[in-house]
Automatic annotation (TrEMBL):
Keywords: DNA integration, DNA recombination. It comes from Vibrio algarum. The keyword Ribosomal protein does not apply. This is Tyrosine-type recombinase/integrase. Residues 6-84 form the Tyr recombinase domain.
């Protein structure tokens, strides 16, 4: 993606307005084309990421920043303008390694309640 969008604010910029990001529909359509349409939506992937990162004891503020969530606590939002860029970088490297390990079958479901495999 670097050659395509490194000069832009968003990695996945909108085709109609490059100063804005794409919405979730292209990702959902891609999931449908991969035959996950009735099992998974893009927001579910974000929830999976958030849950997994929280279970690994990453800083919740860093996770929320990485997911581009706006803090619902008005006082905290007014005073905390941290971007956590270095911590986000470490989190994203960990997440990338985690996904790779899962794809290669190296992630254990031991200790998980009622694990479900989708196939």
């Amino acid at each position: 993606m670097k050659p395509i969008s490194s000069h832009r604010e968003y990695i996945f910029a909108s085709n109609k307005n490059p100063k804005s990001h794409v919405n979730s529909q292209p990702a959902n359509m891609a999931l449908k084309r991969m035959r996950f349409g009735r099992q998974l939506v893009s927001h579910g992937l974000r929830a999976l990421a958030s849950t997994t990162m929280n279970e690994q004891s990453f800083n919740p503020d860093v996770i929320e920043a990485a997911l581009a969530h706006v803090d619902r606590n008005d006082v905290k939002k007014a005073y905390n303008h941290a971007e956590y860029l270095e911590q986000q970088r470490k989190l994203m490297y960990w997440w990338s390694d985690h996904i790779t390990a899962a794809a290669e079958g190296h992630v254990s479901l031991a200790g998980k309640k009622n694990p479900k495999l989708v196939g």
